[in-house]
Design brief:
Layout: H1 2-22, H2 27-52, H3 54-58, H4 66-95, H5 100-126
Helix pairs in contact: 1-2, 1-5, 2-4, 4-5
Length: about 130
């Protein structure tokens, strides 16, 4: 049951993030949607850790199936990039467009990694 709840949350997070990207030219919509998606995703990671001891399982990389190691690597990379996105996003809001190319480039990478994390989560569940 908890796996279903995690997958539903993950789907909603990806949808919110997609809506935020579509609305990127409307700052008053983009910013709240992206902040919501990022913080909710971090909370989801914490939920998974608290209910499944995900860090303990992930630390056994040599015994884990390759798909789990790929999924964990994608998820960790995504969360780390969230902090870069929050930093560059705040800087963009305060200082103007000079950091926009970096924010946009890292945003694309972060979104692709989040989608890959989402997709691999289903393969991890199926195993």
């Amino acid at each position: 049951m908890s796996q279903t709840i995690f997958q539903i949350q993950s789907t909603v997070i990806v949808l919110i993030m997609t809506m935020g990207i579509i609305q990127r030219k409307k700052r008053n919509i983009h910013v709240p949607l992206m902040v919501l998606a990022i913080f909710w995703d971090i909370v989801l990671v914490l939920q998974i850790e608290l209910t499944r001891s995900a860090i303990a399982k992930a630390s056994q990389a040599l015994q884990n199936p390759m798909i789990l190691n790929i999924h964990v690597s994608l998820a960790v990379s995504t969360v780390l990039l969230y902090f870069v996105m929050l930093y560059t996003g705040r800087k963009l809001l305060k200082e103007g467009p000079s950091i926009k190319p970096l924010h946009s480039k890292i945003g694309k990478i972060t979104y692709i990694l989040r989608l890959a994390t989402y997709i691999t989560s289903y393969f991890v569940v199926l195993r």
